[in-house]
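4.2 Preliminary Data

To establish feasibility before requesting continued support, the project team ran the inverse folding procedure on a target of 305 residues. The structure was first converted into the token representation described in Section 3, and no sequence information of any kind was made available to the design step. The complete token record follows.
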């Protein structure tokens, strides 16, 4: 056996052993804790776990608390979430988490997970006078990069990231057109926005282009786009208009997760709301995953109105 072949053989053998060991751990993990329900994501045709693993705590400039863990810890966390029955993974270009998830996909079957990512259009830093066709070409290239980074032909959900102005359809029309084209080509299954402004959220409720809205919601208005009393009617309008709704900031970006009673209040609220198709939570440790899944099992979700 040549040295090159010997090295390849040993690498392949080690990889196979690692996958077998992980598969054994997965079976044990799945049997010890109730998995979150698999749910239909509105009218998108996508089925995924009601609870998603977020990857963007304190995210920005293509890094987050999650990427700062390093490859080994973050990939291990993603695998742990998958072992526990989480099949929805929330990524973003802004967080820099695509290549970390690609590493996890070496041992997680792509067809068993739903990938959501977000396009941080501000990276383009385009002149407002830039021709719309040029913006569409830039966006198409960005989506091609996403698919390459994630080693997938189709991304399940792509959102325009962090809408902060009510008139976003007017200013971001070429991005929307490019995403619609990608959807027609089968490169993306559903499109939408993540909202960080009440006016932007209200616009999403009536925008025909939107399939999915990612909205901030918790019982105390922490890190939200407005008070609970202001936000919930908009969420109700989003659902009444047939759009899928995913909740974020369920624990107020950790500010409502310091006491057990607070955590229970947050999960019970999200589950009782009757508006959320799913929720994404930025777990940073395996025990956080397990604790929340136990609470989700304790407080079953109310039927979506």
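Position-by-position output of the design step:
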């Amino acid at each position: 056996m040549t040295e090159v072949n010997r090295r390849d053989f040993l690498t392949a053998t080690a990889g196979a052993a690692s996958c077998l060991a992980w598969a054994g751990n997965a079976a044990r993990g799945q049997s010890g804790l109730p998995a979150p329900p698999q749910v239909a994501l509105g009218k998108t045709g996508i089925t995924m776990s009601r609870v998603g693993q977020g990857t963007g705590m304190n995210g920005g400039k293509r890094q987050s608390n999650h990427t700062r863990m390093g490859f080994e810890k973050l990939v291990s966390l993603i695998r742990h979430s998958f072992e526990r029955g989480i099949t929805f993974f929330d990524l973003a270009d802004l967080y820099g988490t695509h290549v970390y998830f690609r590493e996890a996909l070496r041992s997680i079957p792509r067809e068993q997970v739903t990938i959501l990512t977000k396009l941080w259009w501000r990276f383009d830093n385009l002149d407002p006078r830039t021709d719309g066709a040029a913006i569409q070409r830039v966006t198409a290239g960005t989506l091609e990069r996403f698919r390459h980074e994630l080693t997938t032909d189709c991304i399940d959900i792509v959102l325009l990231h962090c809408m902060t102005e009510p008139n976003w359809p007017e200013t971001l029309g070429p991005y929307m057109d490019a995403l619609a084209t990608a959807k027609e080509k089968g490169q993306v299954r559903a499109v939408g926005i993540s909202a960080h402004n009440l006016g932007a959220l209200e616009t999403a409720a009536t925008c025909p282009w939107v399939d999915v809205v990612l909205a901030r919601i918790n019982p105390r208005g922490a890190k939200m786009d407005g008070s609970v009393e202001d936000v919930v009617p908009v969420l109700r309008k989003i659902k009444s208009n047939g759009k899928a709704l995913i909740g974020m900031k369920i624990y107020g970006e950790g500010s409502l997760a310091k006491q057990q009673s607070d955590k229970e209040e947050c999960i019970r609220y999200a589950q009782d709301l009757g508006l959320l198709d799913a929720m994404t939570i930025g777990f940073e440790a395996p025990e956080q995953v397990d604790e929340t899944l136990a609470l989700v099992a304790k407080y079953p979700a109310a039927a979506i109105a």
